[in-house]
Amino acid sequence: MTPDAHPHQARPTTEVDRIANDYLDALVELSPITATYLGIAGHDEDFDDFSPAGHTAQSDLRRNTLDAAAQATPVDHIDRVTLAAMKERLGLAEEMYAAGLDHMSLNVLASPLQGIRDVFDLMPTNTDAHWVTFAARMAKVPAALDGYVESLRAAAQMGLVSPKRQVEACAAQCAQLAAGDGYFVKLLSSNLISTNLIKNGDAGDDALGEATGAGPHPLRAAVAEASSAYTRMGEFLRDELLPQAPEADACGRERYELLSRFFLGTTVDLEETYEWGQLELARITTEMAVVAEQIGSGATIKEAIAILDADPGYQLHGTDELKAWMQGKADEVISNLAGTHFDIPGPVRTIECLIAPTQTGGIYYTGPSQDFSRPGRMWWSVPKGITEFDTWRELTTVYHEGVPGHHLQVAQTVFRSELLNRWRRMDAWTSGHGEGWALYAERLMAELGYMDDPGNRMGLLDGQSLRAARVVLDIGVHCGFEAPAEVGGGEWTYDKAWQFLTSHANMAEDFLRFELDRYLGWPGQAPSYKIGERLWLQLRDEVKALEGDAFDIKAFHRRALDVGGVGLDTLREAILDRPGG
Hints:
The protein has helices at about 15-30, 30-40, 50-70, 75-100, 100-105, 110-120, 130-140, 140-155, 165-180, 185-190, 205-210, 220-240, 255-265, 270-295, 300-310, 320-335, 390-400, 405-415, 420-425, 430-445, 455-480, 495-505, 510-520, 525-545, 555-560, 570-575, and strands at about 315, 350-355, 365, 375-380, 390. The chain is mainly alpha-helical and about 575 residues long.
């Protein structure tokens, strides 16, 4: 048995737990992609139904679950939180569905276009049997995209089409995936493919063909069909959807309010938050100027960053060095923080750092399977041609994605089988809660002295500057608020948004262009990081004030993380409404 696998006596399963667990079981039947992400076996050959009928089926499940939850009687504090969380999460998902947002979903980062491809990154490929499953799912990519096209057409008939900028960029993504140097070609030529599955006439390849009923080389055939399907998808986006797409990037105030609530799990005053974002950005910029002086006497922020970029002490060469550095830093902080500021159970002390097979840029985290046979993983998607990396920029991101950030948050919740039902542990997720915690984790590492080095401190502040800037940009653009004076005031435009972003973020142009497209196409999500951090800090201060000298940071972290990824209103109520209260 894994150490700490069952540290406490399991809580008896209640009626509320059964409702939540039944919902999760039904959900993964309807959403095999969700099953793979959660590490729930038995669904890896299939895809979700992305057609209107598929969205209706998921809506029916949510409504039936909400009806059952409304009739349930909670027996304790944990049940009360579960009911509040399900009502809030599933209720908001129903509002999104009713608004047609599921059907029209298309953006550069988080829509079915990417999800259908991305799920393959999480599939095991260690054995011939794994590749049989991999090939079976790959063969179903065309049907999954066809269902998705049905929904996009249905949404278009209702006048719901993503902006032209998103449609054009997504069409380009399709072309990149299917290109001669794209994902599908690289998949078959990479060392991921075990050689006995692709050599002509090899017994292993014949066995794969028999198992799938696809004849020889079914993996090759499936990959070719998937590639062709993405080519057709790109043609549909360019030829049919693009002419119907609006020019304006802004989604409008009404839709934005719904999306903000969905990503935060709370309602914020958008005008006040817009003003706060500008004040927070000014505060961060002032602090960056102080650190710049420490890096180089008389240096501006831009000059200090140039000094850091040229310093070999912060440089990594090649992805092998990058991967080793990520793993070393992640392992170090787990060792240092376990037992001091956090309770870190045995299975959670393992994190795997990997270079992603895609080249879109960015770092992200995927959680462990429910039995921890697949560990939590930190992925770095390295853009094409990038071979040099600066640790001063990225140390704070390792803390964000690893420990005490997403890995501790997600994996520790998955671990709490004695405390939480499976839905609470595995599927309850709110961006403002999760991303807010990850930013809180970065700040906590600075409080603990891990970012005292001026270069690393500049990296932390540079990341904070980006997060604050997008609060302003995202809310301002989509809600139609007046632009800041530094970009000339008046109405936000793409050029003003670009000027504002590049004034407060010190990253490569290609990365920032993608970032801006992300904000414009996925309203409300990017601000959830910084707003979530703000609300996490407010909650900690509130608990400190209530407990006085008895406040214990480790106990606060344990109590907060044990709630799981609920909305921020539900989190606050759960922490302040103590068991028995």
